[in-house]
Target: BLI-3 blue-light-inducible Bli-3 protein
Amino acid sequence: MTQFSNTNSGGKSADPYRDANLDKEATLAEKIEGLSEFMSKCQFCMMTTHDSKTNLLVSRCMSLAAKEAGGIDLLFHTNTESGKTNELKEDSNINISFLNSSGEWASVSGRANIITDRGLVKQHYSRQLKAWLGDLGDGVHDGSENDPRIGIIRVKMITAHYAISRKNVVGRVAEVAQGAVTGKPAAVNKLREIDESEVQNWRSSH
Model:
């Protein structure tokens, strides 16, 4: 892949923020469990799919319904007749991103499939879904756990990266202020990366 560069930093790292914040000490278990906990606390996320008709990316807010495989695979309720299911049928590549009010974030890249198995739907069904699907009054499409419009989007993680704070608010402000004066990169986050081989390793034991 051709890389973009706009300057020559003379052998020095041109991305000192990443160098200062990358968490190289965390074990795989710590990285996965930290990510899983963060996603659960956020609950709401942005799901990004590819619209093959326009060749554009499309995002919408989703609520995390459950996790599988030790926290790496994500489940979401969906209306099977919605646009996102059409997009995923054409292109299963997907991104799920989380963000909280403190600026901590996570990005999960993976592939998705649409599950219509009633057993899985009933296992994760919530009565609140009726508010989103409505009752069409035909005795079938009633927003219940038996409504055939209700499906599950299962996102199987391929890679992920996320950043969680390593200091409290006062500490982060002080670190950023110091960096603005001295030019020293602010070490305020634990930036963690989970590559494809790590995901496969985790999946094999969960």
